[in-house]
Each structure stands twice: as C-alpha cells, then as structure tokens.
Write a structure and sequence with these properties.
With about 450 residues, this protein is of the alpha/beta class. It folds into three domains: about 210 residues, 3-Layer(bba) Sandwich (FAD/NAD(P)-binding domain), CATH 3.50.50; about 110 residues, FAD/NAD(P)-binding domain (3-Layer(bba) Sandwich); about 100 residues, FAD/NAD-linked reductase, C-terminal dimerisation domain (Enolase-like, domain 1). Helix content is about 35%, strand content about 25%. The protein is built from 15 helices and 21 strands. The strands form five sheets. Strands 1, 2, 3, 4, 5, 6 and 16 form a seven-stranded mixed sheet that branches. Strands 17-18-21-20-19 form a five-stranded antiparallel sheet, with helices on both faces. A four-stranded parallel sheet has the order 10-9-8-14, covered by helices on one side. α2 runs parallel beside α10, α4 crosses α5 and α4 packs across α7. The N and C termini lie far apart (about 75 Å). The model has no long low-confidence stretch (mean pLDDT about 95).
Amino acid sequence: MDATMASYDYDLFVIGGGSGGVRGARMAAAAGARVAVAEEYRYGGTCVIRGCVPKKLLVYASHFHEDFADAAGFGWSVGAAGFDWAALIAAKDREIGRLEGIYERLLADAGVTALRGHARLLDDHTVEVGDRKVSAETILIATGGHPVFPPGHGWEHAISSNEAFHLARLPERVLVYGGGYIAVEFAGIFNGLGARVTQVYRGPQILRGFDDDVRDTLAGELVKKGIALQVETTIDRIEKTAQGVAVHLSDGETVETDLLLAATGRRPNTGNLGLDAAGVELDAVGAVKVDAFSRSSRPNIYAVGDVTDRIALTPVAIQEAMAFVDTVYRGRPRPMDHENVPSAVFSQPPVATVGLTEAAARARHGALDVYRSSFRPMKHTLSGRDEKTMIKLIVERAGQKVVGAHMVGLDAPEIIQGVAIAIKAGATKADFDATVGIHPTAAEEFVTLREPVPPPEAAAAE
C-alpha cells in the first residue's frame, strides 16, 4: 500500500446499504480493503425492506383464496376461510426484521464498518455522515431509487408502494394507477385478498416494454380475476371525500375508492448526496452516469444498482457490485454484462422473461421463427379454473439461436430461470429440441415446440 492510500481513513466507502452496496462492501473487504458503509434507513435496501421480498410474501398470501377454491376439484372440503390483514403484516415485518439482521451480521463478519446516517460527499474523497467526516480512496454509490407521484394536484391523498406494506387495515376498494410490474403486482395482491380493484393505465396496454403476447395474455387474465382494467385512461382530478377518495378519470367516470395507489415510476436517489461537489455527472433523470465498469465521471467514484438507471433489478445490482470488486480490488477488470438478464413479474398469474421481445428481435435480427403455445395448466383440468398459460420462444432464423423466451402462467419465474441459462449459453432451437422434457410439466412445453407460428407477412396475406 502506498503512502497515498494509507492517508485515507478507508480504502472504500459505500453509500447505501442495499443489496448492491452490501455485496460490494463485503467482497471488497474480503479482498483486503478497509471498508465502511453508510445507510440512513435500514440495511437491506428496497428489495429486502420495501420491495421484492415483502411483495412476494403478500403475493403468496393473496393467492390462498384461489387455492381454497381449487381444492374442491380435487376432493377437498374446505371450511369457511377468514383473513387477518394485521396478522399478515406482523408476520411480514418479523421476516423483514430477520433479514435486516442477517445483512448487518454479514457486514460485521466481513469486518466492514457499518454506519447509520445520511452520507453526503464534500469532495471526491471526503464523506460526511452526520457530524462525522471520513476520507476514502474509492467511493461506491449504491443509494437505489424511490417511487414518484405523477404531476398534478391531489396526490397527497394517494400512497406509493412504500406505504402499501404498512397499511393499518385492508381497504375494501383500491384504485391502482399505473401499468408497470409494481402496478400489476399490487393489483393482484389487493384483489386476491378481497378488495375490489380498479387498475387505470394511460397507455394502450399494461407492461410497456414486455413482449406483446405477454402483455395481452396477462391483461386478459387480470380481467378474468375480477380486476377492472382501464387502459388509455388518465386521472384528471383527485378529491378527498367523507367516504374515501373520489378519482375523476379522463373518460368522464368518477371512481370512489378507499385507497389510491400510485405506481407510476421510480427515480434514482441522488438528491442531497453532494454529487456536484464531488464532480459526479448525472443524466436527465438524475441517475449517476457510468461507463461499462460502473465508473462515474470521477475516476475514483463508482455507482451500481438502481441509482444508475440501467436495469433496476436486485440481482443486477449484486452482479454490478461483483464486477466492481473484480475491477478495483481483484485485478480482474470486467464490465457487467447486461445482455439476456431474466426477470419476473409476480402478477397473478406470474410473468417471466429472458432475452428479446419479438419486436426487438425483428429490429435486431430481421427474419425470425416464433413458437407460441397457449394451454390450460394441468392443475386446472380438475380445479375448473379458467386460467391459461402462454409460452413463447423467439429464434433468429439465420442461425437458429434462441434469442428470447417468455411465459405467463403458473411457476413461470421458476421455469424461466433454467431457460435463461440455456439462452445465456447461446443455445439453438436444435438444442431445445434435443432436450428431453420432464412430464407432466408446463416447463416441457419449451422443448416440445415444433411448428412456428405464421410470420406476419404470411398472416397478412391470408
């Protein structure tokens, strides 16, 4: 270690105690660096505290009403069921507390100094946490993002996804405004727990950016489950009433609701971090501008996760952090590979996807072979539930490489994780065809697709 390095309090200072920040701190410490991390709220970040983990626990809870109903088709007689919102939230809070403790222990066991408080850069090597100032050779920004409300008046009567995890009671009526994954997930949660749900979205179809067959399939299933879905509609005005909230829509309708949930986007947490003082450049949405190695405009300051507005997924933040550690502390510089990142939407039924949408694949590769199947899951042959599964493979015609896989239906996230390995490895359609299916499963459909759907030009000629 040279004299310059020794003059700093720490080799690495991490701002943000979420998944990316904690992983970067731990692994850098394991590589021999002196590391500190600061978090002003709770260690664990968006995913653990107020995101994917509690959200999925609520999804599980909300699906039991269908499971009880489906059991009758298999010979079970289920008595009257009751639901206790307070008990669910208390159980969820205990689990989140347990996970938070694990994150803190992981840092302690790695020898990382964990600080509580708001961290702000005074320059590119100095951080202020409360009334304490420390210096660091390298700084990693991993402060995540936050939900934002639409412009206009009346949104003080609404909540974001943050507050949805801490409601005192389950509302009888809910209006969800938005069409992204957070919106469809919470629409499914509240609907499954017994609320009357209206979902309003300004675009022509939910899940913008996903494959069109995925979007259309899920929208149809949400409506079947009783969610009143209104697309190409916006909110004109919001007013508080004695009964709840009156939401005036652009089509002239007024919806009376007990809860208005805005799920209309997120923005990076870059405010009041002192980034100007440190010379760190931001983009138009306030995200830290980084290169392929997660390095900002200042060579000693890096950023990973949602604060960079690349792919806002927890495993991506973790992988970006690992690439950062390899680059800076292990002598193995490498960029994070953002190609073929799988993702899931824990809607009801769930969605999972990896690779390109059909539209993106046509733009990149031209001619495609597209395989698609829609079927009733085996479970519902006896339950009688009208729920369909849709799977889709997208193959570039010239080389027969599989460039996209999409699924809507039971167990989709569990299935697509395995498919993602094959696509990441560059599998061809012949590789899928040569793989023996596991029967009877929905997953086997991915290796039994034989006839592509007619291409758009052929369909148009009919």
